[in-house]
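Much of what follows relies on a compact textual record of a protein's fold. An example makes this concrete, so a full record is given next.
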Amino acid sequence: MGMALCLNSTEAVAQKKKELEEQKTRTQEEIEYTNQLLIETQKNRKTTLQRVRIINKRIQLRNQIITNIETEVGIIEEEIEQKNLLISGMEKDLETIKEQYAEMIIHAYWNRSKRDWMLFVMSSDNFNQAYRRMKYLQQISSHRKTQAESINYMKNGIILEIENMEEIKTQKENLLLEKINENYNLEREKQGKNRVVSDLARKEKELKEDIREKERIAAKIGKEIAAIIAEEARKARSGNMYDQLTPEEKLISDNFQENRGKIPWPVERGVITEKFGVHPHPVLKQITIDNDGVNISTVKGAKARAMFDGEVTKVFSILGANYTVIIRHGNFLTVYQNLVDLKVKQGDIVKVKDVIGTVHTDSESNNTILHMQIWKERKIQNPEDWISRK
């Protein structure tokens, strides 16, 4: 039972370490991707707010890696402690076996004469007793051989466990070096951010105008969403959008709900540089931003994709924000804003990952940003709760 538990524990530790390594690899890939995005923003010498957001994302990713490393070091330290306990237990067992074997050898030494063994057998009262005595002597000889084999087996096992522990200690040392390097990178990211923020802080008027422009665009999208919901609600006696859906539409809606946390991203690759909800402005102190969705930074020419099966309910343009497409998935709505070169029109039926347009790249800043929202009827949702985390 103990050995089985030990094996299960070892497998669980190995699986956890594998998952942490995979997470770390994915995070490193995201950091590499943000390098590409930063290069795009730096083509324009003008310092932009988007550059701050990308650096903030990089800082977040660096912190994730450091936390990941610390977790893995903790697992390895526990593993080393378990190995020490195991080796200590094996050494105690080995000493016990050695003592038993020594006693057996001493006993055999004092009774080593074959003549004595033969007399012991021959002095039996009958054949059955002689047979039992012979078997007894054979068992003693076999037991001595088994004990000797056990000693060798235990010695080899201890050597192997010590070698394994040394390998684990090396893994820990490598991780600690990696953590030092990541802390250094993190500090550089923070210093870079401070320089950019300091530069932008002198452009307070421009930044406040940017906030007002985004509020205007958000209000326009909110108005269009409200009109769609109101129209759908009027069709339903209960005023509930779900109640008036066809069976097929209800199936799509239910599937959307069931896939919470697994919905595909609206671009093939990108990083979230502005989160959902109320959060501090990255530069201006004592000013907050309320984002109804998430902003996904991607590369020039990136295609926007439908996140789920559905129907294009609305296509409209907003001055300064290009085209916005709204797709209905039962009683859910997904919103894709800042598109050009549209591939869909109102009334089109789309499948998951169908291309609906190209994400616009700003000619001055070289930023390519898709603003995306998810609604469940009248309730705005946090997209990060719905989209795949991988």
